[in-house]
Design goal:
Blueprint lengths: L4 H10 L9 H14 L2 E4 L2 H5 L6 E5 L6 E7 L12 E3 L2 E3 L8 H20 L5 E7 L21 E7 L5 E6 L1 E10 L15 H10 L4 E4 L2 E10 L10 E10 L2 H18 L6 E10 L2 E2 L5 H13 L4 E4 L5 H7 L3 E6 L2 E2 L7 E3 H23 L1
Parallel strand pairs: 3-6, 3-7, 7-16, 8-15
Antiparallel strand pairs: 1-2, 2-6, 4-5, 5-18, 8-14, 8-16, 9-12, 9-13, 10-11, 11-12, 17-18
Bound molecules: zinc ion.
């Protein structure tokens, strides 16, 4: 198994110490690989905005045919991604158990490199291939926020960045907003003059006691996860509390409705307590829901049929670069490359799926070329 070029390249790239905002080394290596394939390569200025050390990598493989197809994956990885020692264990590649494997998303990166190389080697005419390797995806899908979308000619594309066996596609992913609540009370000596104080913790408890959270409906969730207050001394009435949470929905209207509810509910719940609130809602990214008869899914249907793989249409629970491509007019879905248990030290990738992911990318370009020629 290990004699496969894509497996070697996967192991080479996961061994490079990388984190969000520290993608310099891997970015340089990937840029050199893209140039060697024959791509025109540039890097944008996302590093400045993100205070990181690398920008998004954009590469173009010019084609003889009309049309353009966009392929993307991210270079960064979640924490605990230094010192990765990949090894083959049965049908899978795993880490040594002390780190993540970074198959999320190096499997996507090497699938694109391998597939594009295969197309070049085949010598067959193909359309323009636009490749985007983003930075800082694991920190709120931040790198792709700074892409210059006017550079792309593609009307449709793919984010090779989803867990599951090859054949799984993500046609919809949620909108997400960050929710911040600050509660202001009034400090006073708890023994001498408690009646002059307003307890921010008690006021916050009122707010949270009956706030809608968890599973809101089939498409929407909310979670209040961080609570900070007091901590000084028991003889002071607590005058400040901070709660941070998030909400997600596959339906953007519902997300906006929940955000309005959050603001209203917090204000109303503290009425009569003497406490005041300040709420902040920050939209992280917008949901998408790609049509099943659109260009992106139709092409995958042909690709998987050709490869003898069952296509499974699914929905994602989190945002990804595909959210930003869709929000900027490029119809984009997520594609699985065979990894699982990502973001944990049990992360793995199925070797067969990894090899077939490279073939899948080759077929995506080849099948699209066939379609254009007709
Ligand atoms: Zn990812």
């Amino acid at each position: 198994m290990a004699e496969h070029r894509i497996v070697d390249e996967f192991c080479e790239l996961v061994r490079i110490d990388t984190a969000s905002r520290n993608e310099r080394e891997i970015a340089d290596i990937v840029k050199a690989k893209l140039v060697a394939i024959g791509c025109r390569v540039e890097e944008d200025d996302a590093a400045i905005h993100l205070k990181g050390n690398a920008g998004n990598i954009l590469a173009v493989l010019e084609g003889e045919l009309e049309g353009a197809i966009l392929l993307s994956a991210h270079l960064d990885r979640v924490a605990n991604g230094y010192g990765i020692k990949p090894r083959i264990d049965g049908s899978r590649i795993v880490s040594d158990g002390t780190t993540i494997l970074a198959a999320d998303d190096i499997s996507g990166v090497v699938a694109i490199l391998d597939g594009v190389r295969r197309i070049k080697e085949s010598g067959k005419p193909h359309p323009r291939v636009e490749i985007v390797f983003t930075v800082c995806e694991e920190k709120g899908v931040s790198g792709s926020k700074y892409l210059n979308f006017s550079k792309f000619q593609s009307e449709f594309g793919y984010a090779l960045d989803s867990p599951g066996r090859i054949g799984r596609i993500i046609k919809t992913a949620p909108s997400k907003a960050q929710l911040k609540l600050e509660v202001f009370g009034k400090a006073s000596h708890a023994g001498n003059a408690p009646e002059k104080g307003v307890n921010a913790i008690i006021a916050t408890a009122r707010i949270l006691a009956d706030i809608k959270d968890g599973r809101l409906d089939d498409e929407s969730t909310a979670n209040y996860a961080i609570f900070r207050a007091g901590g000084e001394a028991t003889n002071i009435v607590c005058d400040y509390a901070l709660v941070t949470g998030e909400t997600r929905s596959l339906n953007h209207d519902k997300l906006e409705e929940y955000c309005r509810y959050f603001v209203d509910h917090c204000k109303k719940a503290v009425e009569g307590t003497g406490a005041t609130v300040k709420t902040d809602v920050l939209l992280n990214y917008k949901c998408f829901n790609v049509k099943e008869d659109g260009k992106a899914i139709s092409l995958m249907r042909r690709v998987f049929k050709k490869m003898g793989i069952d296509m499974i249409i699914d929905r994602g629970g989190g945002g990804m670069d595909a959210n930003r491509f869709n929000a900027n007019g490029i119809e984009c879905i997520g594609l699985a490359t065979g990894y699982g248990a990502n973001h944990t030290s049990n992360e793995y990738v199925e070797v067969d799926d990894l090899i077939r992911s490279g073939e899948m990318v080759e077929q995506m370009i080849a099948q699209y070329a066939e379609q254009i020629k007709k």
